[in-house]
Sequence to fold (234 residues):
Amino acid sequence: MSAVLTVEKINSYYGKSHILFDVSFDVRKGETLCLMGRNGAGKTTTFKTLVMVMHPKSGRVIFNGRDMGGLKPYRIARLGLGLVPEDRKIFGPLTVKENLILGTTTGKKGIWNLDLVYEYFPVLREFQNRAGGTLSGGEQQMLTIARTLMGNPDVLLLDEPSEGLSPVMVNTLKDLVLKLKEAGTTILLSEQNIKFAMAVSDCVVIIDKGHIRYESDIETFKGDDVIKRQYLAV
Ligand code: ATP
Fold:
């Protein structure tokens, strides 16, 4: 299947520190690709570069056939690249419902609306009138994902969604991602939780010290214990 998102030899820096080195990979329509790597490997920097919160010094991000170079992050969200950031930026004083409605500012049309979000995330329907800041960490994670879905993205970018969640919440998240896959959502995920990644992904790309070291389908990766030991904390 053809790539909906192509990352082509991106090099990104924080000041003079060179963080990403010729990072390249493709995300194909309908698939869930997981970018795996240890702490500090460059996962978040990759995601920030994809939505041009950070501009690469060289390389290209091609989304739906269009070069994202030089575009502002809000334009990229409107074009359908929907980031769920690692730090769960919900608006604490606003209600859950108000947070969700903010997600529609992309103006993009698609299947997602309040009714469907409430169907996928019953806890958000229950708490729709509560201030977002009063939700638990796991519920806030669900709210951040749901808010991004309200913008009807073509590709959902999930940056370490399982981080800091209880095992029960990780399970809920897993079921949700599997449901989103069934609905045809294209997902780029970053993770350190191998078990979670293996349960939801179709393919894996491993990043280490800003370099892509490994790419494979999930079944091959599952049996590749040497790679897991070499690049991931197992
Ligand atoms: P984590 O799981 O810890 O979030 P990560 O794989 O997402 O890890 P990044 O956050 O992309 O990793 O960090 C990659 C490298 O960039 C690390 O060496 C980190 O110290 C460095 N880095 C991250 N943010 C900054 C910043 N604002 N200024 C300078 N260096 C940074």
Summary: The first strand starts at residue 3 and ends at 14. Residues 167-182 form the longest helix (16 residues). The chain has a mean pLDDT of 93. The pocket of adenosine-5'-triphosphate is lined by residues 14, 17, 19, 37, 39-45, 160 (CB under 6 Å).
